[in-house]
Amino acid sequence: MKRRKFLKVAALTAAALVSGLAAPANAQIAPGKYVPRTGSLQAKRWAMVIDTRRFTSKSDFDVCIAACNEVHNIPSIPTDQGIKWLWTDSFDHVFPDDMNNHLNTAVRSRPYLLLCNHCTNPPCVRVCPTQATYKMPNGIVAMDYHRCIGCRFCMAGCPYGARSFNFVDPRKYLPDPVYNPTFPTRMIGVVEKCNFCVEQLDAGRLPACVVASAGKILFGDLEDPNSTVRQALANNFSIRRKPSLGTQPGVYYLV
Q1: Tens digits of per-residue pLDDT, 33-87?
Q2: Quick check: 254 and 113 in contact, CB under 8 A?
Q3: Full-model pTM
Q4: Which of 239-254 are b and which e, b meaning 16 or more Cβ less than 10 Å from the residue's Cβ?
Q5: How far apart are alpha carbons 55 and 139 in whole angstroms?
Q6: CB-based burial of residue 58 (10 Å sphere; 0-12 exposed, 13-18 middle, 19+ buried)?
């Protein structure tokens, strides 16, 4: 980006941010309310359980990531500033506060699937000045791209690195036609992340990665003792990312 254009974008972003912070609370428009439609999948608190023991090859991860990318029109940008909703990383990066030095070697050596944790106490929601990020009644941390001013406060507030910023126009890196014409594409200057496939749930379908995983990823109501996620957590040892922060992630890992 040329220097003049960069300064112009920076000035407009700063002005919008100051405007949003200076406005009194009663002057801000509250996020819209989600009204489930007939036939949608519903829960009091959606949660995900990833059985890391069943991810035994790179293709197991790739098929889940590809499904997510296609459903949500996630571009493949060949730079370090690419967009990611679902990706993998090593144990030491995923669970940096784990103090057990004597874990099974297999647990430490395998890659782990990462995404937005849809926390019960999401710090990204608290720091967003425009309410572009908000928590739905069912526990999903959602985004309104039209409200996002690109301040990236949410990225600074997220302790899991789950958000990406569109430094370039992502639409230039999408195929023509796009993967999924029913899902909106994004523009330069906004943040995006995993949305727990809320649009799939609204249509009565499970998240794309869950379907593609062939049983390796479970999804259900954390407050229902008979749900698949509760049964899996009751019968297996599980861990979550950075539990000491008090965010209460909605993504669990069976190890």
Answers
A1: 666 677 899 999 999 999 999 999 999 999 999 999 999 999 999 887 889 999 9
A2: no
A3: 0.85
A4: eebbeeeebebbbbbb
A5: 26
A6: exposed
